[in-house]
Amino acid sequence: MTPLILVTNDDGVHSPGIIALFEDMKKVGNAYIVAPDRERSAVSHALTLHRPLKADELRENVFSVNGTPTDCVVLAIHRILSKKPDIVVSGINMGANLGDDITYSGTVSAAIEGTILNVPSFAISLAGDKPFHYETAAAFATEIAKYILSRSLPYDTLLNVNVPDMAKNEIKGIKITKQGKRIYDNAIRDIYSPRGDKYYWIGGGELYWERGEDMDSHAVQNSYVSVTPIHLDMTNYEALSDLIKHPI
Amino acid sequence: MTPLILVTNDDGVHSPGIIALFEDMKKVGNAYIVAPDRERSAVSHALTLHRPLKADELRENVFSVNGTPTDCVVLAIHRILSKKPDIVVSGINMGANLGDDITYSGTVSAAIEGTILNVPSFAISLAGDKPFHYETAAAFATEIAKYILSRSLPYDTLLNVNVPDMAKNEIKGIKITKQGKRIYDNAIRDIYSPRGDKYYWIGGGELYWERGEDMDSHAVQNSYVSVTPIHLDMTNYEALSDLIKHPI
Fold first, then answer.
1. Is residue A189 part of a domain?
2. Which of A49, A227, A236 sits opposite B157 (nearest CB)?
3. Which residues of B touch A150 (CB under 8 A)?
4. Residue B37 pLDDT
5. Residue A193 falls within a domain, yes or no?
6. 3-state secondary structure B117-137
7. Domain that residue B77 falls in
8. Sequential pLDDT tens for chain B (248 residues)
9. Rg of chain A's alpha carbons, rounded to an integer?
10. Chain A residue with minimal CA distance to B102?
11. Residue A52 in contact with residue A58, Cβ under 8 Å?
12. pLDDT tens digit string along A51-101?
């Protein structure tokens, strides 16, 4: 049976990343886009509860929603698609989603929501400041989608995929990685307004990553596609046992 | 030596939760508030990089910042406080932060940022729709802060604390819990605009939790304070081994 594929993102329905992804997903199955009407990477990842949402059918199988990536996944699964999708694919994000940054990512959020709703899901991002090799990421999205459709994914677990911004033949392969760890520099520049008030501007620092060949960041830096299995359960069970032994 | 305590939240510097927390933290150490100038639970958790930020000293040891909870923690640690704090306490949030919802919580985000910057951190939330027993949560915040100051916390791990909204003498005790699992109902109501356009309004469904005596939600529902150790590393290591065995 032809698989039903839900494609979404946080850069908005018109972004080059989702269009490239959609074209390739149409070859894998019956693909639908349900995505935010505009860039929503700066909005909350939560559900929009304080106002009604509208879904507009822009063209065949393509819907835009005036809400968050999470809203899109919820409305797609409960209202827009005729049945539960076989897979949710979120991306292709314009920029990497590595290490602790995934906590803040709208792209990863949508895959989290898919996972919560028991649909195997993955997020795919193209690493780089102004990346443009979307065709490379879309090709790997196809491979990974086929893999998931044939094997599914463990309970409560999504895949976070990051693709280096280069031609496909320059990519060395796929590495299964663990979530990396950014060493925060958080350079802050002190600046003054025309009226002489002091302001702080965060950013401009160098980005460092903890070394480790098994890390997501290391794979991408070394021309590999990074695939990290992400678990929704963030409980630290070792710490849990320890806290029970040494009560508060 | 008197410990240095950073207090922040996502409900804003004027919220009753942070004021109650601050009063009790002043008894534990040298406490500072650095918190958003207004309610920021609907803004992104990420750092604000696209504009400069301003920190205003409202009164002794109390600063407001026109940014996110994460911005507040970064500016406090790198600029506003004279040295690195011994603990970051985020809250008291107006409403619970349980299960998968912690991914979306600004309150928990601030504790995550503290943890990333290697300061032992915890988030504290008062469960209930319109909770008002902030003095109960503040009392438990004091106990937990003293515990952490005497023992620290495991690497990359914060505590997520939820307090039932009741008088302290009604609370049965503290339970160390794992992150619960919401069973999403996501009821959606179809409504129509005055012009006849169809809209969807998410919400109004019942909230269910997976059963399990060790879950955060179960503790709070049964009049216990829930304390969950949360790990920043979300890698599912079992799935990682499995993916290496069955390559994509």
1. no
2. A236
3. none
4. 95
5. no
6. CCCCEEEEEECCCCCCCHHHH
7. 4-180+211-245
8. 899 999 999 999 999 999 999 999 999 999 999 999 988 765 656 778 789 999 999 999 999 999 999 999 999 999 999 999 999 999 999 999 999 888 878 899 999 999 999 999 999 999 998 999 999 999 999 999 999 999 989 999 999 999 999 999 999 999 999 999 887 776 899 999 999 999 999 886 777 788 888 999 999 999 999 999 999 999 999 999 999 999 88
9. 19
10. A234
11. no
12. 999 999 999 999 999 999 999 999 999 999 999 999 999 999 999 999 988
Paired strand residues for B126: B94, B163
Domain containing residue A222: CATH number? 3.40.1210.10
* Contact state of A154 with B179 under an 8 Å Cβ cutoff: no
Domain count, chain A: 1
Return the bridge partners of A36, or none. A65
**Tokens of residue A139, six digits:** 């090709």
pLDDT less than 70: residues of chain A: 41-45, 185-186, 204
CB contact under 8 A, A45 and B103: yes
* Count of other CB atoms within 10 angstroms of residue B139: 17
Inside any domain, residue A134:
yes
Under an 8 A CB cutoff, do B154 and A242 touch? Answer: yes
Q: First and final CA of chain A: distance in angstroms? A: 55
Task: Tell me, yes or no, whether A203 lies in a domain.
Answer: no
Q: Is the ipTM of this complex over 0.85?
A: yes
Identify from B100, B144, B199, B236 which residue to disrupt to test chain A contact, counting A C-beta atoms within 10 A and taking the largest count.
Answer: B236
